[in-house]
Amino acid sequence: MKFVSELVKSEKTNLLDFDRDGLKAFFVEMGEKPFRATQLLKWIYQEGVDDFDQMTNLSKSLRAWLKQHCIIQAPEILLEKIASDGTRKWVIQMSCGNRVETVFIPEQNRGTLCVSSQVGCALACTFCSTARQGFNRNLNVSEIIGQLYSAQKRLGEKQRITNVVMMGMGEPLLNFDNVVAAMNLMMDDFCYGLSKRRVTVSTSGIVPAMQRLSQVCDVSMAVSLHAPTDTLRDELVPINQKYPLSELMAACQDYAKTGPRKHITFEYVMLAGINDSIGDAKALIKLLRHVPAKINLIPFNPFPGSDYRCSTGPIILKFRDVLHNAGIVTTIRKTRGDDIDAACGQLVGQVKDKSRRHLKFHPALS
Ligand code: SAH
Known about the structure:
Blueprint (H helix, E strand, L loop, with lengths): L12 E2 L5 H10 L6 H11 L13 H10 E2 L4 E7 L5 E6 L5 E8 L4 E4 L3 E3 L8 H4 L2 E4 L2 H15 L7 E4 L9 H12 L11 E5 L3 H10 L3 E5 L5 H7 L8 H14 L5 E7 L7 H10 L5 E7 L13 H13 L3 E4 L24 H5 L5
Helix pairs in contact: 1-2, 5-6, 7-9, 10-11
The chain binds S-adenosyl-L-homocysteine.
């Protein structure tokens, strides 16, 4: 594997930027047979080979051509932190001084990788520290699939990544094409072969993109709901002002009809005194009455400068019981990796902000 730092910016084509269809099209354009795509994908993702000379089922001339014109290049892991519960956070170097974060969460029978889709985030959810970093740019395909590629290499054979959640930095559905291509690679039998039940996209509710996704890429869907009414959600998740709850619920209903899990997971961050009353739970039940739903309650993870507090343990349990008694499967997300700032909403990386949003949040200016 060649890392960015070892190379002066390369004019070569990075093969990690293509899913199978993209790679086929690339080879056809180069006058090669399309089946070369599957051969290459197997070498890269299943054999872990990045040296074209070792790709013995390719002709010598093709290998020479690939060496001259192509490269297999994942972004560099700059820093690794390991939490007391085994959660690992990697800081990953992207171009122009930007960094994103990727988190690995080991559990008894599975290993979940939390992948970033953008440098920062263009949305402004009030309880999320990524939002405060502002936004720089979309990650390209190699930078998204490269997180899985590099993480699995670092973990080695003993710890397999069995699940991927697009819940790192950024709004995945605002980087639609690149995220879809990367998820295609995750699920491709010639690459990682993860089942569509084990790849989850988490969205703040970009309604038209949810509709598009159901047509092109059949992955599990999690929606960051966080509020049962438009008034409150307009404030906590401002994209709600553009795609209000009535439209979001309709999109969820449609997605559940075709999606692999036949239900939507709703994430709901527990904020003391803001969205955690019994009345809120009842409003949530009413809101979700026509949607096949599971609810994942997320204890709020604090970060420097945040005004919110997490709901107390008893309040969270009570909230869960109300939902549960209404027949909604409700889980409470175990907070993982908080001692290394790897928990939900704590990922910050290093964002060369172009939105200038951080100025609005700067304590000295507010
Ligand atoms: N932009 C996407 C994916 C990234 S966030 C989305 O909104 O779904 C992953 C999850 O963590 C989201 O549900 C997000 O709302 C939640 N989250 C953000 N900040 C948090 C915090 N401080 N504590 C707990 N959860 C948080």
